User: What shape does this take?
Amino acid sequence: MAQHNDTGSWGEQVATEYLITKGYTIRETDWRCDKVEIDIVAEINRRLVIVEVKTRSDDFVDPLMAVDVKKQHNLVRAANAYINYYDLDIDIQFDIITIVGTRDNYKLEHFPDAFFAPLRTY
Assistant: This one.
């Protein structure tokens, strides 16, 4: 496995464990819709939480910057597919968890409601 894939998998595992300690129920990890993946699908207080995890070995570049508008649109599209697939009637929020550092020394930050699904008109 490539180093960046190993780092990403480790970060997603850390984020999953963190969410569990905070009372979240983990519904899925690495859920795919076409070419888009949702890192973690969780639930808390009857609210579906779509979590994007960004893991970096250093903070040279802010990991939040990797969740740009295109990534947000893809996550919204995948979340919509997830809701339709499971026929859910539930509120939804989009969170970002960043992990910066190494396995021995890292900083985790959780950003609940990091962005809102953009409204689209047709």
Remarks:
- The beta strands are 25-33, 36-44, 47-56, 91-101, 106-115.
